[in-house]
Design brief:
The chain has about 150 residues and is α+β, with helices and mostly antiparallel strands. The chain folds into 2 domains: about 35 residues; about 100 residues, Alpha-Beta Plaits, CATH 3.30.70.100. Helix content is about 50%, strand content about 20%. The protein has a 4-stranded antiparallel sheet with strand order 2-3-1-4.
Length: about 150
C-alpha cells in the first residue's frame, strides 16, 4: 500500500511538472507567434548646433512616455562616442511596433497627440532642435534575442 502511495505521488508530481513545462512551451510559442509581425525601427536624429541636450531632455522627460502611450515600445537610446559620428549632435534609438501597419498608426497618433504638440512647441521656443531624422524598419532574425 505504501508503494502504491509513493507511486501515486511520483505520478502526480511528474504529471504536474509535465503540465507546467508543456504549458510554458505553449505560452512561449504564443508569444513568438504574436511577435512574428513585430518590427523594430532604428531612428537617428541629428540636432542643430548645441541642441542635443535639449533633445535628450525632451526624450527623457516626455517623448518616451508619449511613445508608450501610442503603442511604441522603447528598446534603447544611445549617443555615439566617436567624433566622426557627431557625438555632440546625434541621438540614435530603437523602438518597436506590433507590425508595420501599427507603426504607421502609432506615428500618426503620436503626431496628433495634443500633449506632444505642446511639448514640441515649448521645447523649440529658442529654435528648432532637430535638423534631420533618418528611419530604418527592421525585422528580427530567428537568432535575435528580441525575436
Amino acid at each position: 500500500m505504501l508503494r502504491n502511495k509513493r507511486f501515486g505521488l511520483i505520478l502526480l508530481t511528474v504529471a504536474f511538472i509535465g503540465g507546467f513545462v508543456f504549458g510554458n512551451l505553449l505560452q512561449t510559442q504564443e508569444i513568438v507567434s504574436a511577435q512574428s509581425d513585430r518590427v523594430f525601427e532604428l531612428r537617428t536624429y541629428t540636432t542643430n548646433d548645441g541642441k542635443l541636450p535639449n533633445l535628450l531632455t525632451r526624450f527623457r522627460d516626455h517623448t518616451t512616455r508619449i511613445f508608450e502611450k501610442h503603442g511604441m515600445t522603447n528598446v534603447g537610446y544611445w549617443v555615439p562616442e566617436d567624433a566622426k559620428d557627431h557625438p555632440a549632435s546625434t541621438l540614435i534609438y530603437v523602438i518597436s511596433h506590433d507590425s508595420r501597419d501599427a507603426a504607421t498608426e502609432n506615428w500618426q497618433a503620436f503626431r496628433d497627440d495634443p500633449e506632444w504638440k505642446q511639448v514640441a512647441e515649448e521645447s523649440q521656443r529658442d529654435g528648432r532642435i532637430v535638423a534631420n531624422v533618418e528611419s530604418v524598419f527592421m525585422t528580427a532574425t530567428d537568432f535575435s534575442r528580441l525575436h
